[in-house]
Predict the structure.
Amino acid sequence: MRYTAEIIGVGTELLLGSTANTDAQDVSQLLSELGINVYFHTVVGDNPHRLKEAVEIAKSRADIIITTGGLGPTYDDLTKQTIAEAFGKKLVFNEALADQIREFFKTRRTHIKMPENNFRQAELPEDCVIFNNGIGTAPGCAFFAEGKHVLMLPGPPRECRAMLKSCVQPYLRGLSDEKIHSHNIHIFGMGESMVEDKLRELMQDLSNPTLAPYAKDGEVMLRLTARASSDDEAQALMQPILTKVCDTLGDIIYGIDTGSLEKTVLNLLLEQNATIAAAESCTGGLFSKRLTDVPGSSEVFLGSVIAYSTQSKISILGVSPELIAEKHAVSREVALAMADSARLKFGADIGVGITGIAGPQSDSSGHKPGTVFVAVSTDNKSFCKSPYIFYDRDRVRIVGASHAFDMLRRLLTGLPI
């Protein structure tokens, strides 16, 4: 059976916009990986009447109903009570859960006396599967009633995310004998519309496996997904499509299931035992942050300088003031000088230099906001690229750093830059 799901986020703070609904994103990503179709996201405030209405609507159009939030101990946390009532189930006090809540306060909240209302979190619908919460005090649960699978998860993102992995994923996998397997194809250097144009006929002709594009900042991801009775069968279904996609798109594909450009580059640096340093201006250290976010980066990343002002480019990096006066701080020549300086100052094998105009205003260079110069330097060759990046400051920084990672990927694999 192929399931459809609806996600109901509970919380007035979500409606007011004071809290982003990241739980829905996390749940949707998991369901997509499991091959469960999500057709609706609903958000409802802390109001039992409106929540019950939302549940009744979800009953009419989904096989699986997943709620997030409203499992806390306070008077407005009414998700369990409302959903139990909607499905004609009683709430039952679970002494074992009460002991876990007591232990949580005893060992982790030693400075706080446990409020009595926390015991409300030990009340769950009768005959439910309990999802233990290893981070907080609100357990989740699941039950089957009226032909629907109902799952209730805590609202705090860390708790919800952990429960998805430890409890929800195995529960949902157990609903079907089919195996769902997917590959994420990561692309940099071509927009979503052009990728879709090149692969449109292929995507339209597919039913199992399926191929779908997803746009990110400056990147595109294709998800190839197959349903089969075994992993081997799923792989056999996907391999011809994967080969065709790779043949069609070529070297703009930077990895299969690699996660990110920075992870791809880090793995290449580790394989080649190569070190790297950076000098950043308009990206404000984002290149360095993204690289050091990846475990293992300390093996190859020696350091960086954020030379945001013209004076810091001169005094810290040693870029020639005459060069800046002649070519301007935002220029190909200065980006190359920054890359060389970073490499030499840190004693790295490779240097990266990034300078540009993040906007929204231009400067005396005459370049438009969004103009970026990205340079990569080694002891015997240097490269500089000047992409023009549309939209806002954040995108200029993100995509500017991504261009640096893509240049490094190409350098380290012998591809043209």
